[in-house]
Amino acid sequence: MNSGGTFFYPLKMGKIILLGMQEVMGIAGVDALGSLAPLESFIQNYPEVNPTQAFSFETMSLLQSTLEQAYGPRGGRGLALRVGRAAFKYGLKEYGSMLGLTEMAFRLLPLPTKLHTGAKAFADLFNKHTDQKVRIEEKDNKIFWHIDRCPLCWERKAEEPICHLAVGLLQESLYWVSGGKVFNVEEIACIAHGDGVCTIVIDQIPLS
Ligand SMILES: [Zn+2]
């Protein structure tokens, strides 16, 4: 496996993640992470990142493992979830109109249709604009968000699923799409755990 940076997110998406981190941890918190890991050069140059420097899967994975290193597995997990949730609104600002999610026609659709259409649009965004590969499967009132190539757990090994940032991002997107409802979102398989794919299950019936 080539670890020199084979797969990438566009910088715009890297910035969205870093804005989420900044909101949750403050600038000082993000800076402190930079001193722990080779993220340093990226964070120091943020937000005026060198446009030729893409946001590699290695960097994405490192962001999360650094959180765990700094705050312990449980603390790091909680933070990654919150970063994912916080990053959603920056993502929406950047990509929402392109995906048609901010149009009135979308807002007026019934909830099940919105979940179906929204999940597909969201998956397309990753498939077309990043090297992350996402596949949607719908059955038994559930949406299975399969990440066939996942940056969050890239080249990691873990005892349990660790793609918490994606879980947070999906939680917040569901909250927004449904106009304030909360859904059960759980990662049930993870490549870092030895599974063939990272799978996040979304219950289509809201909890509240
Ligand atoms: Zn993963």
Task: Report a brief summary of the structure.
The chain is of the alpha+beta class and 208 residues long. It has helices at residues 11-34, 40-45, 57-95, 104-107, 111-129, 164-177; strands at residues 8-9, 55-56, 133-139, 142-149, 185-189, 198-203.
Can you give a write-up of this model?
The protein contains six helices and six strands; from the N terminus they run E-H-H-E-H-H-H-E-E-H-E-E. The protein has helices at 11-34, 40-45, 57-95, 104-107, 111-129, 164-177, and strands spanning 8-9, 55-56, 133-139, 142-149, 185-189, 198-203. The termini are far apart. A hairpin with an 8-residue loop joins strand 5 (185-189) and strand 6. With 208 residues, the chain is of the alpha+beta class. The strands form two sheets. The protein has a four-stranded antiparallel sheet with strand order 3-4-6-5, covered by helices on one side. A two-stranded antiparallel sheet has the order 1-2. It is globular. The model has no long low-confidence stretch (mean pLDDT 89). Zinc ion binds next to loops.
Biggest sheet: strand arrangement: 3-4-6-5
Radius of gyration using CA atoms only = 16 Å
Annotation, overall tally of beta strands? 6
Based on secondary structure, the structural category is alpha+beta
Strand content: 5-15%
Give the fraction of residues assigned to helices. Answer: 40-55%
Low-pLDDT runs of 5+ residues are: none
Integer average pLDDT: 89
**Series of H and E elements:** EHHEHHHEEHEE
Bound molecules: zinc ion
Main β sheet profile: 4 strands, antiparallel
Number of distinct helices? 6
Ends: how far apart? Answer: 44 Å
